Amino acid sequence: MSYKRDRGLNQTVMSDVSAPSAPIAQPVSPVATFAWLPWALPIVAAVLILPIWIARLPAMPDMPAHFATFYLLGGGARNPDLARFYQVEWAFVPNLAAELVVPALAKILPLVAATKVFLSLIVAMWVLGAGAIHKALFGQVGTAPLAASFFAYNANFMWGFLNYCFGTGLSFLVFAAWIANDGKREPFRIAGFAIAVTAVYFCHLFAAATLFLMIVCYELAKIWRARPFSAIAILARAMPVAVVFLPALVAFVLLKPGGAGSGHIEFNLLSTLDDRASAAIQFTFDRPAYAVFVALLLFFGIGIYKGKLRLHPLMTPLLIVLAAAALFTPEWAMGGWGVDLRLPAVLGALAFATCEFRLQERSIHIFTAIVAAVIAYQSASLAGNWQYYSKQFSEFRAAAAKIPGGVKLLTVLDGDAMGEASDQPYWHMAEYAVMDRGDFTPLLFTTKGQHVIQLRPAVHDIAASTAQQGSPPDIGELDDLSIGNVNDDPEIEKSFPYLIRFQCHFDYAVVIHSGGKQTRPPDMLRLEHAGSFFAIYKILPSDDCGHSS
């Protein structure tokens, strides 16, 4: 039996040279059967983008802080109330995608709409980028990239790691262009790729590192397949890569981003195994699509073993390296948390972007129908979930309008009342008051060397300064925080040093209880508003606060 690759098919045509007695099923011509393929990925992308526009506010944990940042960059920092707390300090930090794009779009669109356009671009690039890689490898867009679209909604997107997600989606397109232009390394093309790679770097550092890994593995595979080796051939492939990444490397060395010199690295491999698996595909925040993930994993593994899936030979090294990196990437690195969540979705998307199916027409249609049904369910689930949180956020913003503007607002979690409910969607909810009321919150993204919104000296010591300090305290910790007791709870000194004696610095506290049985608040909190899932308290300074507030 011999195999002939027909580039007009999304499958392998078998020619029987030994003339067996039993006829071999031949695939139907794709001219009629697969005429819909060029439209499939754009339609999938549109369906996945729908929740972004259906929900009033995309309910990602980090999104309120992003909205506040965009508002400040768009001119909000000139608000007299906010000018007491925040200032814009532009810097060449590799974390600028949304900070550059959204305020620019907001000049012609409302801020929320501009943000939704940015989110839509992320989803589109993840879906269409996988298709572009597939086309660059196989000459046409087949069915396999449809499965890659599942990974567009992953833990990074659900958390609201916008710059990383945008940078990675852009890196897919750059990688596809790199493959498509193999053998065409003229100076003007190299210059174009250098600009594109530098753009990815300033979108997000980790996205640029991922792109570097993709291109290097591809070039190494090309060198390996061109045996016997020659120094000239190796240099011919290595030099364009070096030139293309040189500007980003120079920027990294000379404009060293915040956290780059940090020695704080935590792997926590065993405790984060579940996080890594759940990061690949999510229907909503903190709701991993384990069934879909396992089904795709089995489909891919069995398909490769049975010969029903063909992995492009140039991509095997890349997938092996990505699989190892996804397993062993640290949880904390370079001042950032969640590094271990970054690669599982990339690995999943690239696994299906770099393979093709050897399936009969009926199997292709069944697979496509299943993908369409799951994608529709995924989109509907996310839309409903975001609508639920949007109503809650609207309730909070209406209640916050009743307190004075320009105050210092603190978020607190009532863990006992919330029980097993996810508290992360509420971590940055108070940041809506930054753009609505001109208030100060201690959890806005203002880390030196990582963000362009910076704190005024007057509030520098009462705001989180690292990612380790990026979550709210529990209501049970307020008594110790009020008296500066760091001995009974080590977490206070590690995570909340800026909140010690908070009653002397903050004016109001919003306590999240999710409708559960509320914990009795400390005496320094006086109820101002009781909401369905939160309560707003006036913080009463203690007698020894003096004029420190």
Give the radius of gyration: 26 Å
Shape: globular
Strand order of the largest sheet: 10-12-14-13
Number of strands: 14
Q: What is the chains' assembly state? A: single chain
Unreliable spans are 1-33
Instruction: Report the span from N to C terminus.
Output: 83 Å
- Which bin fits the share of residues in helices? 40-55%
Amount of beta strand: 5-15%
Number of helices: 21
| Count of discrete domains | 2
Helix/sheet category = alpha+beta
Rounded mean pLDDT score: 91
Largest beta-sheet details: 4 strands, mixed
Give a verbal description of the structure.
With 549 residues, this protein is α+β, with helices and mostly antiparallel strands. It folds into two domains: 2-14 and 31-54 and 91-382, no CATH class; 401-545, no CATH class. The protein has helices spanning 30-33, 37-54, 63-73, 80-83, 97-105, 111-138, 145-148, 155-159, 162-180, 187-203, 205-225, 231-254, 273-279, 290-306, 316-328, 343-353, 361-400, 415-418, 432-437, 478-483, 490-495, and strands at residues 2-4, 13-15, 86-88, 282-284, 287-288, 309-311, 332-333, 336-337, 355-357, 409-413, 453-455, 508-512, 525-530, 534-539. The strands form six sheets. It has a four-stranded mixed beta sheet, covered by helices on one side. Strands 1-2 form a two-stranded antiparallel ribbon.
Secondary-structure map:
Blueprint: E1 2-4, E2 13-15, H1 30-33, H2 37-54, H3 63-73, H4 80-83, E3 86-88, H5 97-105, H6 111-138, H7 145-148, H8 155-159, H9 162-180, H10 187-203, H11 205-225, H12 231-254, H13 273-279, E4 282-284, E5 287-288, H14 290-306, E6 309-311, H15 316-328, E7 332-333, E8 336-337, H16 343-353, E9 355-357, H17 361-400, E10 409-413, H18 415-418, H19 432-437, E11 453-455, H20 478-483, H21 490-495, E12 508-512, E13 525-530, E14 534-539
Parallel strand pairs: 10-12
Antiparallel strand pairs: 1-2, 3-11, 4-5, 6-9, 7-8, 12-14, 13-14
Helix pairs in contact: 2-6, 2-17, 3-5, 5-6, 6-9, 6-16, 9-10, 9-11, 10-11, 10-12, 11-12, 11-15, 15-16
